[in-house]
Amino acid sequence: MRILLATHGSLGDIKPFASLARALVAAGHEVHAISSNVYESIFKDTGASFSAVGPRASHQPHEARSLSRKLRRASPRRQIELVIAHLQLRDVGTLADQVRQAATGCDVGVCHAAAFVAQRVLAVAGIPWASTFFYPGAVPAPHQPRLELPNLGWFGNRLVAAAIGCYLRPVRRRVEHALDQLEPPVQATSHRRVDHSVRPLGSASPTLNLLAFSRYLGPMSHRWPTPAEITGPWLDPHRAYQPDPTLQTFLESQRPQVAVSFGSMGGQAEETVGLLLAGLARAGLRAVIQRGWAGLAHEEPPEDILFTDYVPHSYLFGQVPIVVHHGGAGTTAAASQAGAVSVVVPHAGDQGGWGRRLHALGTAPRPIPRQRLTAEALAAALTAAKAEPMAQRAREIARKMVAEPGPSAAVLALERVAHESPRSPRARRS
């Protein structure tokens, strides 16, 4: 069968789709991915074809740093609005045309939960589509506690969901106004009433909802949107990754205890580097620091610190007992699956929720929001992260997570959808 993958956002939103593309191609399916032009290289070795959609970006790291600075100063509602406007609302008509062209001949689509334009285009075309969630708190399940908040019970959680809905109403109206420029979705052929309303945190699909997070990290609900499949995270194995000689020598000679990765979080690079070096020195720990989109660097770093470009998390995190990261869904899953203790420094969005969740699970000290990061706070968190009970708990969760199927479960679910869809009588496992 021919499958369209539609995603956008930061690296944590893109790389899981590349893992899914690789699994689908390995299962014999034809895959076409669409996203920003700067992510074409991520899909290059997956076997999937790729089309760039949306505004063309030539300096994405610079844009990411600028957006990151705005997000840190914004309210939660404004953060969501900024991200949606940046990725989808600058030229809805053109984006819809690009998605429509890419979807031609597809049997089924897989969309990021917040890829509202792609969802609408597929619904108009009558193509069954799955919605993908990387974060339990974004799943539209009113009985489920948000990841950031305690479980208030059936009634309390519904009240919280209603309050969040009211709080985000201006964002929803802005997106719906933009989507009104497009055709309305076709009517569902099943007896169930299909809800096509926009939810700024992520819209559920009437066909299939892929919950691409670990059941051992996120709080689980018995009332997920139907139908739903909890697959586990879509992590990309490092396969036969060979570190460059500089990294290999550092790992062998220094035996670092810490890896630092803030991914596509940007801004305040010089200040961040200073805080990291001071905190690591106070804690007496050696570290590998990934430069990331912020461009973290130092002209003359201490001999027990190495700055490096991107290294697959599945490889790097397996070399160290502690990972300092921003709390993105993919990085959180990779650190947890590697059995590393996390020190989470949330920058925006769901990252604070993941930090609090890991702390509640006993695999991380309390998260340190980026705006409150100091050398003293980082050193204290790193010292706490060295405790054996925390390390033991991290290893216990890792042993459970490695058994989760991840993308392979999503492949099976999508094959079921394609075979059951009236639109895809020819869909088959090639």
Structural account:
It is built from 15 helices and twelve strands. It starts with a strand and ends in a 10-residue tail after the last helix. Strand 11, helix 11 and strand 12 (341-344) form a beta-alpha-beta unit. 41% of the residues lie in helices and 12% in strands. It is globular and about 60 Å long. Helix 9 crosses helix 13. The model is unreliable at 186-198 and 425-430 (pLDDT under 50). It folds into two domains: 2-234 and 406-420, Rossmann fold (3-Layer(aba) Sandwich), CATH 3.40.50; 245-401, Rossmann fold (3-Layer(aba) Sandwich), CATH 3.40.50.2000. The protein is α/β, with parallel strands linked by helices and 430 residues long. Strands 3-2-1-4-5-6-7 form a seven-stranded parallel sheet, sandwiched between helices. It has a five-stranded parallel sheet with strand order 10-9-8-11-12, with helices on both faces.
Could you list some keywords that capture this structure?
disordered C terminus; Rossmann fold; single chain; five-stranded parallel sheet; seven-stranded parallel sheet; 41% helix; 430 residues; globular; alpha/beta
For the record, the CATH architecture of the largest domain stands as 3-Layer(aba) Sandwich
In CATH terms, the superfamily of the largest domain is Glycogen Phosphorylase B
Q: Low-confidence segments, ≥5 residues, pLDDT <50? A: 186-198, 425-430
Helix and strand element order: EHEEHHHEHEHHEEHEHEEHEHEHHHH
Spatial strand sequence of the major β-sheet: 3-2-1-4-5-6-7
Query: What is the count of structural domains?
Result: 2
Using only C-alpha atoms, the radius of gyration works out to 21 Å
Judged by helices, strands and strand pairing, the structural class is: alpha/beta
